[in-house]
Structures are given as structure tokens and as C-alpha cells.
């Protein structure tokens, strides 16, 4: 199904705007084109439109007749999207629009991330701004930038810019869930240089590839216990080092901090005399991992190919420390919340491992809804890498969002959801990072809530959005806007 046919899906008002948005490249930290696109959209509707000093776009629309006495609502979503693709997919995110298709009840992309996170929220707000027949109070659309790699848009939004009383964040990925809290996070970066050594004679070169993993959102999906390609690769390399004297030339695994790594590639050599035994051991090790993860990662693939000898390898002492550090560093759920059943409190994602040309770099994202627990885990990870001589920086820290169970807008959403769907919604905090906690620092009196349509596989090429859920979500949004509380 082509993008033209996507535009015919119901509700057309939302899918058409989503298709428009997906034609615009919008990677995190390079949102110039989508900022211009959104400003032109607001100006084209003759609505008050402004771009703040960091690039957030704000569009205001007056209330429809009869709802002028209601509190002003801020509708908030982020403009950037995670750019991930399968290795076999030929696609240029900088110049091409996302190619979409329908499979049953799901809209997906052709081998790339879809951008439903948070493009469907953006498209919904655009549809509301453009509408002429939907009742609503005064609206203030806030389109933030760089949510996925630093939340710098939310951090850079100054107090006093927004006029609204209630904020509806449209960035939750389960349509029966109403979000009332989220985790904060901190980026951990470990780097060091190392001496390279020339490869000795009587060696054989290999390339090892780990791929076929599901990947996914390092916040929402971390509880699933999915495979991490960086950790899998390290298990194999450490075994090869200890049993066959394996020497590493390059490692290139994972990508963005907020995506669970799906692929890793390593180039190395071993003594030629051990070649056959090593190949047999790798085959056996692959079978062990595949059996270990057969339920969670049924498509896991581990392949070994002979290649020309690399020119250089890591110095022996640094390599040993590197392998043991990656083995030791925590990955996955660190602590479950003792207060909210089923909620991950603290976690870490070993997101990126790069070894090449005398430099190594490891990127992690540590999340927690409890600041002291986040600090504890971050210090644990920092210590592991400092023990092998790395320089470790902690940056991009952002706060969590503390639940307010007495929220007036929460009561509105719960009652509306029950009336429309004849069932109770799931009111919950999430382990992902939402912008509400950051925005709340400069707008402490704003009543905030988060909800959205069902999205699966965010931050991976398997990302998909439920068509029926978008229909449900669109109805829910419209009904909420009809029943916003009156001004105080």
C-alpha cells in the first residue's frame, strides 16, 4: 500500500497529516526542515505561530463558540523521530520521506522506523488545529524538538511562554493507558584511547556478525528482557579471547542510546592453528544463545566469515579490560518499583559500543523514576569504566515526572474513557522518558496527563501503529476537549 493509500485510512484528518509529516526528514538534532514545515502550517491557517529560541514551535487557536470559558489546553508532542533501518534496507533519512504500508490493522514502514513515535501525536494536533467542525477550548499546540536524544526542546522552553492551564501530552503507546508519571534519565559516555599493535604472522582474520534481534525502546521495552547485541557480542569475544587468544581490531555495535541494540559486527584474528576448533566453538556458542533466547529472540543470527587479516589490533591489556568491563556493566532492569506493581524503577541500556583506530567509546542510557537509584546505578557503571582507564561523562540528565493522583484532568480522562469504551483505563507511570517532568519545572502549576494510540516496536524498524487504535484515540481526544473544566 502506498503513502497515497495511507491517506485514505480513517480518520483521514489524522492520517493525511501523518503522511505530510512523514515526507519531511526529521532526525533528532537536525529538525530545521520540520520546524519550517510546522511554522508554515500554522501561518497557513492564519493562527498565531512562533518559534522559540531553541526551535520549539507554538501555535495558538481560539476556542470554538460556547467553550470560551474553559481552561486553555496545551496539546504537546515532539517533532523529531528515531532514525533506524535494517542493514539490508537502502534508505537515506536525510533526503527521503518514510515509505509506509498496511499489514492487517497495522501501519508499518518499509525497513525503517515509522515515526509514529511521536508523529501520530503531532498529526493529531495538526488535525485539530486545521479542523472547522470540532468543538474545543482555546488550544496552544506545543511541538518540541530533540526529545529522543536529549529533550533539549523541553529543557529550553522558558517559563512564561505557555499560557495554557492543562497539558495533554500525546506520547503514550498503549491506547488503554493514561500516563501520570515517567522516569528520568542520564546519558553515560565512556571513552579512551589505546595503542594498536601490528598483527603477527600465522593469524587468520574473521568478521563476526550478531543480528536479527528485535531491538525496541530502551524504556518501554526494557522489561521484556530482549537480547542486546552488544552484550551478546561481548560474550562471544570474551570466550574467544580466553580460549583462543582472540585479538580485536574493530567492534561496531548498536546505535542510539534509546534503542535496544539489534546488531553488532566485530573484526578480529586468532592463531591459524586454532581455526577449526574456533569455528566449531562459535557454532556451538551460537546454538547455546539461540536456545537461551529462543522465545524472546527467535530470529537471532550469529555468523562468522573469514576475511583478510586486519593490520592492527588492540593492545592486549586494554582489550582484556575492555571485554571484562562490557561483561560487567549492568544492562536491563536494575530494580522494579516497590510501590507500583509491574513498573520498572531503574534500568540501563548498553546502547553503543565502538572500537576502531585506537579509540573506544561506550554509550549508555540509565533511567529511573527515583533519583537516588538512578545516581546509584550511574555511579556503578561509571566505576566499571573508570577502572579500565576510561574517561566517563554523565550528561543530558532530565527529571522524572511525579504522579499526581488528585489531578483534575486525570478524573476527566478516566470518566471519558469509561463512558466511551465501557471499561476502566489503566492509569500508570511508565519507564520511558516523557517531557512532562521537564516542562513541569518551569510550569509547576500546569495539570499534566499523557495518552496516545497503540504503537509497537518504537525505535526499531519493526515500529508499527494500530489503525483501529488511532480511530479510538481520535474519538477520545475530541470527547476530552468537549469537557475541559471551566476557568478558575
Strand coverage percent? 25-35%
Beta-strand segment tally? 23
Q: Give helix % range.
A: 25-40%
Count of domain modules = 2
InterPro entries: Peptidase_M20 (IPR002933), Peptidase_M20_dimer (IPR011650), Peptidase_M20C (IPR001160)
Domain Peptidase M20 dimerisation: 211-294
Keywords: Cobalt, Hydrolase, Metal-binding, Metalloprotease, Protease, Zinc
Protein name: Cytosol non-specific dipeptidase
Task: Summarize the structure in words.
This protein has 488 residues and is of the alpha+beta class. It folds into 2 domains: 3-183 and 400-482, Aminopeptidase (3-Layer(aba) Sandwich); 186-398, 2-Layer Sandwich (Alpha-Beta Plaits), CATH 3.30.70.360. It is built from 12 helices and 23 strands. It has helices at 3-6, 12-22, 32-44, 116-130, 152-156, 229-244, 275-292, 316-328, 371-386, 408-421, 436-442, 467-482, and strands at 48-51, 57-61, 73-78, 100-103, 106-109, 139-144, 166-169, 177-182, 184-193, 196-198, 203-211, 247-254, 264-271, 301-307, 312-314, 332-336, 344-356, 359-368, 391-398, 426-430, 447-450, 455-456, 464-466. The strands form 5 sheets. Strands 9, 11, 12, 13, 14, 16, 17, 18 and 19 form a 9-stranded antiparallel beta sheet that branches. Strands 1-2-6-3-7-21 form a 6-stranded mixed beta sheet, covered by helices on one side. Strand 16 (332-336) and strand 17 (344-356) form a beta hairpin. Helix 6 packs antiparallel against helix 7 and helix 6 crosses helix 8 (316-328). The longest helix is centred in the middle third of the chain and has 18 residues, at 275-292. The radius of gyration is 24 Å and the shape is elongated. The mean pLDDT is 95.
